[in-house]
From TrEMBL:
<dbReference type="Pfam" id="PF13802">
    <property type="entry name" value="Gal_mutarotas_2"/>
</dbReference>
<dbReference type="GO" id="GO:0030246">
    <property type="term" value="F:carbohydrate binding"/>
</dbReference>
<keyword id="KW-0326">Glycosidase</keyword>
<dbReference type="InterPro" id="IPR017853">
    <property type="entry name" value="GH"/>
</dbReference>
<dbReference type="InterPro" id="IPR030458">
    <property type="entry name" value="Glyco_hydro_31_AS"/>
</dbReference>
<protein>
    <submittedName>
        <fullName>Glycoside hydrolase family 31 protein</fullName>
    </submittedName>
</protein>
<dbReference type="InterPro" id="IPR033403">
    <property type="entry name" value="DUF5110"/>
</dbReference>
<dbReference type="InterPro" id="IPR013780">
    <property type="entry name" value="Glyco_hydro_b"/>
</dbReference>
<feature type="domain" description="DUF5110">
    <location>
        <begin position="690"/>
        <end position="758"/>
    </location>
</feature>
<dbReference type="InterPro" id="IPR000322">
    <property type="entry name" value="Glyco_hydro_31_TIM"/>
</dbReference>
<dbReference type="Pfam" id="PF01055">
    <property type="entry name" value="Glyco_hydro_31_2nd"/>
</dbReference>
<feature type="domain" description="Glycosyl hydrolase family 31 C-terminal">
    <location>
        <begin position="589"/>
        <end position="674"/>
    </location>
</feature>
<dbReference type="InterPro" id="IPR048395">
    <property type="entry name" value="Glyco_hydro_31_C"/>
</dbReference>
<keyword id="KW-0378">Hydrolase</keyword>
<feature type="domain" description="Glycoside hydrolase family 31 TIM barrel">
    <location>
        <begin position="252"/>
        <end position="580"/>
    </location>
</feature>
<dbReference type="GO" id="GO:0005975">
    <property type="term" value="P:carbohydrate metabolic process"/>
</dbReference>
<dbReference type="GO" id="GO:0004553">
    <property type="term" value="F:hydrolase activity, hydrolyzing O-glycosyl compounds"/>
</dbReference>
Amino acid sequence: MILNTQLEYKGDLFPATIKTYKKDVDVLHFSTTNNVILQLTVLRDSVLRFRYTTVGKFENDFSYAIDENASRGYNHLEISDDDEKYIVTTSKLICHIYKSDLRKSIFDAKDKSLICEDEKGFHWEESYELGGDIVKMSKAAQNGESYYGLGDKPNHLNLKGKRFENWATDSYAYGKDTDPIYKAIPFYTALHDNKSYGIFFDNTFKTYFDFCHERRNVTSFWAQGGEMNYYFIYGPKMIDVVSNYTDLTGTPELPPLWALGYHQCKWSYYPESNVKEITSKFRELNIPCDAIYLDIDYMDGFRCFTWNKDYFPDPKRMVKELADDGFKTVAIIDPGIKIDMDYDVFREGLEKDYFCKRADGPYMKGKVWPGECYFPDFTRPEVRKWWAGLFKELIEDIGVKGVWNDMNEPAVMDVPGKTFPNDVRHDYDGNPCSHRKAHNIYGMQMARATYHGLKKFNYPKRPFVITRSAYSGTQRYTSTWMGDNVASWEHLQIANIQAQRLALSGFSFAGSDIGGFAEQPNGELYARWIQLGVFHPFCRTHSSGDHGDQEPWAFDDDITNIVRKFIEIRYQLLPYLYTAFHQYSQDNVPMLKSLVLFDQDDSQTHYRTDEFVCGNQLLICPVNEPNAKGRRMYIPKGEWYNFWTNELVLGGKETWVDADLDSMPIFVKAGAIIPKYPVQQYVGEKSIDELTLDVYYKHGKEDSELYEDANDGFDYKKGRYSLRKFNLSGNDNKLVIRIHKRGKYETPYETFKFNLIGLPFKVKSIKVDNEYIDLKDVKFNGDNSLVLSKGFTNLQIKG
Ligand code: MIG
């Protein structure tokens, strides 16, 4: 017999008429006759927060997502009303709130055009069984509207026509249509009439988003519990929407520069001799590599913070020897703690009551790699502190430089749902709740605690953490990867989409398992994947290891050479990538720009997925098919140089681009100044005594930036960085570069080597800071490269 305890579905409930309105500085309260309150907070002229309660009183206002340093403040705020509505006006937005039903319409303050409008608006369904409401919001979809964002979804970049769920899930060998997967990032941007806005639904319960899937003219989002609590962010530029969201949920500090190098991983390298074999091979073959990973087999019976002494008899010595060879060791740490009274981490967690419990008191027991485990409640500050402290030995004593957090959705084996049951209790930083509310932030809080451990014990060096699961804001603490993908051509395309989508969702420091985790790539697929991977902020080969090898030399010599060539390009571009990271960290600018983000006014970009801009000036398009000699791609408007041939092409069209297996379509924006270091086998191998600047001539103007610092440590926060701004302007017979340097850091090199590309004239004179110089003195070699000692502010090259 099935006992149906669910109360009959009563249907959706709606706010009634507004009864009272109250203003408290930047917080407005609208209360209805049926106890609904809408609280509207004006955070910025372009950022409004909408929060609803149906019981006349709000919950404690607490969010794991919002960064405590998020910008606040507006230039203008005015509230008026007429018979029909309240009118809230800032310098960017006008928001109407209708007195009869609390619905809202939001307009651009300048041209008064409609940006976003409630359809039914806020409504809810009472949940008798679980208490509280299923909270819902629906918006009228605008004509031709497109949608982007939502974290790690593997589907088409443009989300229109689909419905998605956010519930962090261990998704081995997921496919294009698998949903949800590992992350829950309930933020999207919308674009219509060349204007973009974003919605961040800061609700950690299971959430859903429907983009014109159920009804063609409606987008909606809802959650299984909690409050309707969302941020409306206006652009009108999508890049500003993303930056404002990123400002709200935070950015990471700079990673150590080595973390932007190449990483090699496998499940698993062991014993020590195998690890050494791999690292030696990198050096022997001159393939740059900065990090080597230890997957779960380094542990003693998968007990976190232990070592298998048969495989690794002296970890400290090994880690030191690897470090001497330029390798940073990264070790995996999972959340499950093995139930074992002889295991001190377990005993301490038990004694101090740090493990998660079920509703009626028993421990949350689940099977993962070590067997039956208990799981720390990372949502409790005291537990996070304890966890951070556990890293002392691994980081401070042994010298491990990075930690890899896996299985933190949290994943549980052999149970329905593959995670904790809903009744598990969490502290939620003093807001006790069930797993329904804490599930999506469990992994984030684990990564946060791990980050604090590394920050403490690796000090004064910078921490490096990588996590699988994440919620909005997780990017403040850690990098991420896309989980267990597959060695297939389709997955190469998925990896590209996911990296772009994560960047669009505030999480730039991400990359896929290059070559695919499950199954075995052939050499061609691996080479094509490396080509894409070197342009992702995080660049690591990883594989499940239960098939053949997946190191750069695992295929044939031709493949090895191609892989080396592309990893070398990444190492040359390290100052370019680091600058992009600085712009992300400091200015909230995503490191990868999907074409729609790059040029939203060009409607051709709205449904593109393969092409993207890495940093601000490199246009990348991977080859996603076998046996290709090139591909068709869309080149965005403007002038671009072919990276390989320096041929100038005019964008705004789809075109064929040659790209044999040893090449891929890469274009450089005209006017760009691309900084390059010499190839190194690992960051810091060489002292950089000359900086190369590839200057791509443009008739017109273009700005470039170069950020540098000590590549590790925190001195940069005290002003010890070097930020050079280059303003290039060119005409028919002249090229002028102005250089402006900020910051107290002196870069170690003495000279700049300018490679002048695409000059339409023969150089007749060069003026440095208003003094003509003898062409011989500047080592002007006739090949249009010239070496000058740095430190000047104005360079004029005339024909
Ligand atoms: O159940 O640690 O996504 O990267 O190699 C598999 C072993 C557990 C899943 C991760 C993968 C890692 C693997 N882990």
